[in-house]
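User: Hey, my collaborator sent me this sequence without any context and asked if I could get a structure. I don't really work with proteins. Can you help?
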Amino acid sequence: MSPSSSRGARRTASGLATVLLALAGSLAVPALPAAAATGQVSTVTYSAADLTGALSYWTPARMKQVSRAVDLGPTGPLSKPWTGKGIPSIGRLFFVDSSGQDTWCTASAVISANRSVIMTAAHCARLGSSPVNTYSDIVFVPGYAKGKMPYGRYAVKATMTPRSWAEDTVNDVAAMVVDTPAYGKRLTDAVGAQNVAFGRSPGERVTAFGYPATTPQRGEELLFCAGTSQLAPEGEHRVPCDLGGGASGGPWLAGFNSATGKGTVVSVNSHGEGHGGGTPMYGPAFDKTARAVYDAAQRG
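Assistant: No problem. I've predicted the 3D structure and written it out in C-alpha cell form, which is a compact way to encode the shape of the chain:
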C-alpha cells in the first residue's frame, strides 16, 4: 500500500510496505494512540496496555501467517539473501495499518542516548497526508530469520515522524522508541547498534537491507543490495536495488563491514519504481528534519 502524495508523480510507484496482508476474518479496530505535533516532529505514544496488547497480538503463528498472505512475485536479480554473520540490529517491524491490515516493514537499531531507538520509514508508522491515520500494535523483532526470534520481541512505545510526512507525505523517515521487556535488556544493549549519520552527500557505496515479500523468501529472510548512491529528484537519494515490498525502512549502511555486520545508516528504503518495488530504490535524505526526528526519539 502506497501513501498517496499531493505532489503527484513522485510516488506513483508504490511504497515498500507490503500490501493486502489482512488475515481472514474481521479485525477489531484498535483504540487510537495519543498523537501530538511539536515543531518539525509528529509523535505518537502508546500506553502500557497498548504495548501488552501488541505483544499478545503478534504471536509467532501470526507472523508466519502474514508472511504467507502475500506474494509480490519473484525476488529481483539484484536482491541477494544475506548469508554472512547474523545482524541482530536489523529486524522485521510488524504492525496493523490504518485500514486494519496486518503487515510489516524493516527497521534497524541505532546508537542513541536511551539505547532504545530504531530507524525505519515514515510510511511504516503512519499514513502520509493524513494526520489522524496512525498505525497500531507495532512490534520490532531484531534478527528475525525464518520464524526464529533469537533476541525476543520489542513493543514500540512511541513513533516520531516528520510533521511534513503527516501533513504532505514528504520526508519518508521515522524513528521509534521501543519498550524494554521486563525479562531483558534495553534494545541496543541486547543486539548492538548501527551508527547513524546526517548530512552525508550521495556518491558513497551503500548496502541496503530488508525483508521483502517476494518469492521465495516471503519476508522470512534478510536480503540485501549494494551499490553507489546518487542524488535523485526532490532531494531524495537512489541506489541500484530491487528489494520488494516489506523492505521499507531497511537501512542503507555506508562503510558496511560484513565481518562485523556494522555500518552507518545514511538513509532507509522508501519506494521503488513499480508496485512492490523496482529498480532503483529511493530513500530520504538524512537532513535536518531527519535529525530532529532522531533526536526526539533518543530523548524519549
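In plain terms: The chain has five helices and 17 strands. You can pass these C-alpha cells on to your collaborator as they are.
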